[in-house]
């Protein structure tokens, strides 16, 4: 949460404690009472800090939610995210990702840096590339936009960025992005200037965006696109890393028991380096047993 928002919550809490909410604000207070712009209140509501007690065409009544009160009371003070550069980052960012410590450090630095540094995570399947993008999206909320190169929106990248103005653009499967969007991306990443002509009107935005992207293949990217990124190549997991990742993913995300996770990891050792294979085995093992599931799935 940004410091600015924290200040607003404190102001709201002060307002609530200096009035009799049950008597005078049974349907909640409105923006006029707290003198905070409606759009800001709506955002705080969407983020869960306010409750919407009443809504009509002419009145929207709010009150601090339990989460809002807890934050004002400082219950989450240790978790106050770091707010620098483009975004605020919670301490538990990337908590679900096992290993990859260098990548975590790099991405944190990139997100907190004052000026953009674009990063491309490249490497074979199932190395947590998409997971990194999701985690960033989760942490950045509306400041980030996540998109898949192969499924570009009808409006196109250019219009989407102009409309939503994200601080961080997360592009999965960058190698599959179409030519028009790639051209737009090249210009956005460089000058930070976004000019588009739309129905006879030119929109000129002075704009600095940072891009974190993922791709299986590097060879298909044009040299000028590659050059705009710090390319971070992820190598396949070593045997030891594979065992640790499989154990972690199965226990935390697939509810597999630690014993069964160990059994799956050791039965797959030498057969595959793909975490997705382990997930498939874990899902079939309760019915088939680990050994049989491995045999049927991997031959
Ligand atoms: N280090 C890791 N920590 C946690 N989960 C992992 C890790 N590595 C792989 N996984 C798991 O493996 C699966 C695949 O991960 P993800 O989709 O992020 O891979 P990817 O690198 O984007 O692969 P692709 O190139 O095929 O898109 C997910 O279920 C993810 O949870
Ligand atoms: Mg992926």
Topology:
Layout (H helix, E strand, L loop, with lengths): L2 H15 L3 H4 L6 H4 L3 H9 L3 E6 L4 E5 L1 H7 L9 E3 L2 E3 L11 H12 L6 E4 L6 H12 L3 E5 L8 H8 L3 E5 L6 H12 L2 E6 L2 E6 L3 E6 L7 H5 L2 E4 L5 H15 L4 H11 L6 H14 L1 H9 L1
Parallel strand pairs: 5-10, 5-11, 6-7, 7-10
Antiparallel strand pairs: 1-2, 3-4, 8-9
Helix pairs in contact: 1-5, 11-12, 11-13, 12-13, 13-14
Would you mind describing this structure in some detail?
This protein is an alpha/beta fold. The protein has three domains: 3-72, Arc Repressor Mutant, subunit A (Orthogonal Bundle), CATH 1.10.10; 82-233, Rossmann fold; 239-298. Helix content is 46%, strand content 18%. The chain has helices spanning 3-17, 21-24, 31-34, 38-46, 66-72, 101-112, 129-140, 157-164, 179-190, 223-227, 239-253, 258-268, 275-288, 290-298; strands spanning 50-55, 60-64, 82-84, 87-89, 119-122, 144-148, 168-172, 193-198, 201-206, 210-215, 230-233. A five-stranded parallel sheet has the order 6-7-10-5-11, with helices on one face. Strand 3 (82-84) and strand 4 form a beta hairpin. The radius of gyration is 24 Å and the shape is globular. The termini are far apart. The chain binds adenosine-5'-triphosphate and magnesium ion (MG).
């Amino acid at each position: 949460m940004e410091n600015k928002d924290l200040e607003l919550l404190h102001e709201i809490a002060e307002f609530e404690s200096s009035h009799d909410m049950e008597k005078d604000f049974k349907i909640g207070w409105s923006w006029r009472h707290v003198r905070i712009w409606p759009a800001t209140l709506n955002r705080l509501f969407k983020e869960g800090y306010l409750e919407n007690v009443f809504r009509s065409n002419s009145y929207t009544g709010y009150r601090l939610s339990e989460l809002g009160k807890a934050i004002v009371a400082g219950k989450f003070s240790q978790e106050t995210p770091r707010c620098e550069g483009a975004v605020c980052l919670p301490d538990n960012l990337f908590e679900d990702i096992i290993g990859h410590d260098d990548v975590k450090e790099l991405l944190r630095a990139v997100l907190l840096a004052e000026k953009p540094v674009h990063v491309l995570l490249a490497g074979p399947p199932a190395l947590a590339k998409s997971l990194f993008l999701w985690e960033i999206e989760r942490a950045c909320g509306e400041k980030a936009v996540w998109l898949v190169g192969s499924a570009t929106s009808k409006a196109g990248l250019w219009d989407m960025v102009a409309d939503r103005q994200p601080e961080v653009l997360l592009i999965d499967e960058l190698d599959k992005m179409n030519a028009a969007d790639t051209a737009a991306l090249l210009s956005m990443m460089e000058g930070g200037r976004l000019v588009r002509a739309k129905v006879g009107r030119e929109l000129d935005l002075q704009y600095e965006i940072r891009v974190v992207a993922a791709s299986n293949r590097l060879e298909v990217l044009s040299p000028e696109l590659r050059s705009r990124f710090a390319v971070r190549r992820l190598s396949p997991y070593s045997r030891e890393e594979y065992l640790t990742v499989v154990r972690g993913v199965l226990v935390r995300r697939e509810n597999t028991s630690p014993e069964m996770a160990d059994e799956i990891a050791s039965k797959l050792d030498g057969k595959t380096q793909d975490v997705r294979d382990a997930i498939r085995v874990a899902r079939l093992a309760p019915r088939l047993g680990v050994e049989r599931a491995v045999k049927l799935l991997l031959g």
